[in-house]
Amino acid sequence: MAAETESAVPSSDPPVGAGDAQPDLLPVRMLNEFAYCPRLGTLMWADGEWAPSLDTRQGLFTHRRVDKGDRRAVPESDAPPEEPLHARSVSLSAPGEGLTAKLDLLELDGPVATPVDYKKGKAPDLPEGAYEPERVQLCAQGLILRENGYRCDEGVLYFAGSRRRVSIPFDDALVERTRELAAAFRLAAANDRLPPPLKDSPKCPRCSLVGICLPDETNLLSAEAADEHTGGALHRKPRKLLPALSEALPLYVQQQGAFVGKSGDRLTVKLEGKKLTDARLLDVSQICLFGNVMLSAPAISELARRGTPICHFSYGGWLNAITTGLAHKNIALRIRQFEVAADPAASLGIARGIVAGKVRNQRTLLRRQLKERDKGDRNHPALTALDDYRQRAEHTTEAGSLLGLEGMAAKTYFAEFFGLLPPWSRGDTNGRNRRPPTDPANAVLSFLYSLLTKELHVAVQSVGFDPMLGVFHRPRYGRPSLALDLAEEFRPLVADSATLMLFNNGELSEESFLSRAGAVALTDAGRRSVIAAFERRLAQEVTHPIFGYRIVYRRVLEVQARLLARAVTGEIEHYPAFTTR
Amino acid sequence: MRHAYLICYDIATPKRLRIVHKTLKGFGDPLQFSVFRCELTKLELHDLRERLAGVLHDDEDRVMIANLGPINGRGDESIEFWGAPLSLAPDRGPTIV
């Protein structure tokens, strides 16, 4: 950039040495997102959230030629080229405007510069020639060119879908709107709170971040909180914008001595040189290794690149470590998480919801099972007791008493729960025991809780939380407290119900266990059955109790982690635990 | 939702043939020589297109992509086998070994 052009922008230059107060240059690409939806832009730019969708990928593909760039020099504004010139992929900044951009194509004709932006779609049938986000983005590119000393009065949008060039004049109204949006964007990015989601907008279904933003769900829950004060009107049921199924599933390797390697875009599992199985990387959502299993460096690096976590268990099923790629960028959420964890009242508020949800789910499981066994005894003392514990948990004001209530509810619950299992599977005392478990039922429960914790560890980590710092479980070295917190409400729903299935459908028998001096462990075959039952349960569809749509448990875990993030950042008032009826 | 796609190719040089074959192995299973059956979402299919576009020479090579329909539906029923296929329909559950 020439010295003259720099000094040509005097007034709006940020003060030198402003340090942290000086805002980053705003990429005009992000300004497009912000104009489309303020929440989307903020999620992408400030929080660093990103999810590819068919639209974004097709967009990049359309750009592949212009993105390549060329190595020819581009003349500066004070030395206009003699012949018209085209330059691809030109990066330029304007500190005065606070903007930066990579221009797809820059057309220079004497002193006149025209930015050309490639769009994959068809030209819309509008008098302005294009929708506002595209026009604003292009105009911002124009402003950058102007600050760099070029004459720039219009830009061009090239719509690849209809192979049409559409000229967009940079009139005063558009320039003003562009600056207004850029200023609003900076304000939103500096704010702790995200802009609210769009209301019932047709823009949401095709948005690539819909699963992160949860627009309808967030609106419903924050509206519910507001309604308690206003008296309440009915709200629309959320649209089902989340995909119900996840296509990729976990790969478990518990065969001792197995070797997991990468061959092309597949993972192969071998034992002593012989292939046991292979799976497309596309189909693998996480890999879980038990005990003595090897994993090649190319496989690790490819899994990390794809963001696929690797969970390392001991032979006995203890979760030792999770390998992931570089840490999640959402530092703002972590800061809020630590603030909430340090604030006893805020922590308790969330913990109450979690414990009450868990006790409610325990009661529901017992009620259904006892109804089958005792032919409809609705007033079983255990059910009444659990109801009471739940109500007290909902209103307690002390973390200590919440812990006590949770313990008493568990005792009441397990006294009945073990009675639902065949006699050979349980010890004499009908209660939980662990480290090591001394009867088959407890061995299965411990293993399932470990799998469930792993699942939530992955979920909270992928949302951007630090899994080690919780609100109910106190932090301890090496304990994934937040994953354990969130696992509470799912223990009855996923682990306990899978245990009942395993024992009562005869999937496990006495041969599935090994007893060594009183400590009971699963055999390889037994463990395989338990993993299969756990996965079957996660693949089961339920009707969401608040949102009303059908969704598989695996997705529910993810949604709950995101709702917890909303509660932590204060966007929704209460954390809504997942409970079934 | 994934669909099943039948993907067939004629590739002019052995080097590109090897690359195309290896690429397709990451997206599906070979049914016969130069014929794959791939279960893909639209996004995954786009991925495959991008990968192949970087390899193929349009003047010499050919690729055919036929959408057989959704898996668990028409996509599963539309292929009839005589003799021994190189692979069978994939197991769609989690992999436990």
TrEMBL record, chain A:
Entries under InterPro entries matching the protein: Cas1, CRISPR-assoc_Cas1, CRISPR-assoc_Cas1_C, CRISPR-assoc_Cas1_N, CRISPR-assoc_prot_Cas4, Dna2/Cas4_DUF83, PDDEXK-like_dom_sf
Domain of life where this protein originates: Bacteria
Protein name: CRISPR-associated endonuclease Cas1
Gene label: cas1
Catalytic EC class: hydrolase
Subunit record text: Homodimer, forms a heterotetramer with a Cas2 homodimer.
Entry EC number(s): 3.1.-.-
Residue span, DUF83 domain: 30-214
NCBIfam families: cas1, cas4
HAMAP family: Cas1
A Pfam family of this chain: Cas_Cas4
Binding site for Mn(2+): E406, H473, E488
GO molecular function: DNA binding; endonuclease activity; exonuclease activity; iron-sulfur cluster binding; metal ion binding
Function: CRISPR (clustered regularly interspaced short palindromic repeat), is an adaptive immune system that provides protection against mobile genetic elements (viruses, transposable elements and conjugative plasmids). CRISPR clusters contain spacers, sequences complementary to antecedent mobile elements, and target invading nucleic acids. CRISPR clusters are transcribed and processed into CRISPR RNA (crRNA). Acts as a dsDNA endonuclease. Involved in the integration of spacer DNA into the CRISPR cassette.
An individual GO BP term: maintenance of CRISPR repeat elements
Entry's family note: Belongs to the CRISPR-associated endonuclease Cas1 family.
Keyword Secreted: no
Gene3D superfamilies found in the cross-reference section: 3.90.320.10, CRISPR-associated endonuclease Cas1, C-terminal domain, CRISPR-associated endonuclease Cas1, N-terminal domain
Co-factor(s): Mg(2+); Mn(2+)
Reaction it catalyzes: exonucleolytic cleavage in the 5'- to 3'-direction to yield nucleoside 3'-phosphates
Keywords: Antiviral defense, DNA-binding, Endonuclease, Exonuclease, Hydrolase, Iron, Iron-sulfur, Magnesium, Manganese, Metal-binding, Nuclease
Region (Disordered): 1-21, 61-93
CDD domains, alphabetized: Cas1_I-II-III
TrEMBL record, chain B:
EC number assigned by the record: 3.1.-.-
UniProt keyword annotations, A-Z: Antiviral defense, Endonuclease, Hydrolase, Magnesium, Metal-binding, Nuclease
Coiled-coil boundaries: none
GO BP term (any one): maintenance of CRISPR repeat elements
Keyword Magnesium on entry: yes
Record bears the keyword Nuclease: yes
Gene Ontology MF term list: hydrolase activity; metal ion binding; RNA endonuclease activity
Top enzyme class: hydrolase
UniProt cofactor(s): Mg(2+)
Subunit structure: Homodimer, forms a heterotetramer with a Cas1 homodimer.
Protein name as annotated: CRISPR-associated endoribonuclease Cas2
